[in-house]
Amino acid sequence: MIRREIGRTGRQVNAIGLGCMGMSVAYGEPMDKTEAVKLLHAALERGVDHFDTAELYGFGANEELLGEAFHDRRDQAFIATKFGPVGNLATRTVTGVDGSEANMRRAIEQSLRLLKTDHVDLYYLHRKDPALPIEETVGAMAKLVAEGKIGAIGLSEVNAETLRRAQAVHPIAAVQWEYSIFTRDIEREVLPHCWETGVSVVAYSPLGRGMLTGAFSREVRPQGQDYRAVVSPRFQGDAYGANIALVDEIERLAKARGATPSQIALAWVLATKPNVVVIPGTTKLANLEGNLKAAELQLTPAETASLDGLADKVQGTRYDERGMTLVDA
Fold it and tell me: In terms of CB atoms within 10 Å, which of 37, 130, 208, 318 comes out highest?
């Protein structure tokens, strides 16, 4: 197990956490509630203590799962959740981002109720509100720290300039970005700034939304309302086949090392900087156990070099046009 501190909070977590979104939304039918709670308990028993959720993940349904799982063992779980995106609960559609104090207070009270707790360990602005200065939102979040409702402040998908402005208002413990062998935008400015200023990088989708696991092929791809088929150009059209061909390199390396592609992908992210932690998602215990073994895997310089060039060959953006307007903001 690798343990790493979140920001400069003094709180250490397993560097391999659990992204919980897929239990409730995005990849098909939600998990059965009883089975989801069993998986969360099993994760905790195996040393996972960093659990990532958000109001947006099922409009509260995912937070409710974590509340059911951890209300009687709260001191064992480091819980992170997020606010900002707003939408229509009936249609489960997002209509915008609201970073105002009024929306923040509505959201945190709802999160605390659903999580069955009196505090959240790490509270993120899920996406920057384009209509509000970041200073205003972070200033409001700082009040929650003073009130004891949140332990630390995080931001998601912000650029380095936004992060600097936020840090002038209050310490930022973590920045969440998509980061994987296929997605390395963060390395240009955000990762170096986080390293220099003691901010943790929480890498979401370190398995490329499942593409880097080897579970897909040219014939087997996300279908229907799986959000990858709807809003991720990398999983659509000719780009899909081209990207699956790149995964072959990861699979060859995994076979040579007696590992899984997922373990190779996670080991690569964890090796970048000691302030990086990952939150791969899964709904299967076997996958969770396999992911944890990535902590035992060290890539050689030659292996790392063979993987480093893949991002430049990836086709398609990670979100559709609308989604890309809300990242690197």
Answer: 208
